[in-house]
Amino acid sequence: MDSLLSNLKISVPEKIYVKDPESSDLGKRIVENSIILIDDIGFDSFTFKKLGNLIGSNESSIYRYFENKHKLLVYLSSWYWAWIEYQLVFETHTLSADNKLEKAIEIVTRAIKEDSNFSHINEVVLNRIMVNENSKSFLTKEVDQENKEGYFVIYKRIVHRLRDMIKANKPDYKFASSLASTIIEGSLHQHFLKDHFTSITDCGDNVTPTQFMKNLVLNTLKS
Q1: By C-alpha distance, which of 58, 47, 111 is closest to 84?
Q2: pTM (two decimals)
Q3: How many Å apart are CA 31 and CA 17, to the nearest integer?
Q4: Where along the chain do its domains lie?
Q5: φ and ψ at 18, to 5 degrees?
Q6: pLDDT attached to residue 223
Q7: C-alpha span between 184 and 76 (Å, rounded)
């Protein structure tokens, strides 16, 4: 935990990229502008050629960092969850079991504010990508192999942290892992619904996904 708190460099599994984009100005521009472009046109329409045109670089230079656009999306997803994990550890490590779980729910479900520690990554825009595109990082035929190779280790680590907090709060609860993953995926889904399908969610201007998830989880554990 101490190393996580003292080191603000976000670490992403090495197999996801060909060359670490954090190692050069070009790599950072690739990440920065891929977030802007995916948010603007969507992941399905996003290509390395369009990204190259945006940053004024050859398409081939992007392939020196990422094998394909799927790997780039997995990188962005992993970076996002590592950033969330940093906040999760930092903001909960001194709290009691009850308060720790409630704070953790808030952290993984709240609206995102920009973090000035990472000037080349706009976390607010990246959060929109996570809401709209995150499932595309793992809803693929290759998911089992990529999982074996550790592509989703950070995402799973956050679920396990939440699971452990749930167990600490209520040791006899039988569905801690399922509830933990529901908090994360459910909150992303509720953020999506409140922006696009308002008639099938109660979340909106007056009710946040955080409020809904706190109510759902804490009342479930009380029963």
Answers
A1: 111
A2: 0.92
A3: 12
A4: 2-14+75-222
A5: -85, -45
A6: 77
A7: 16
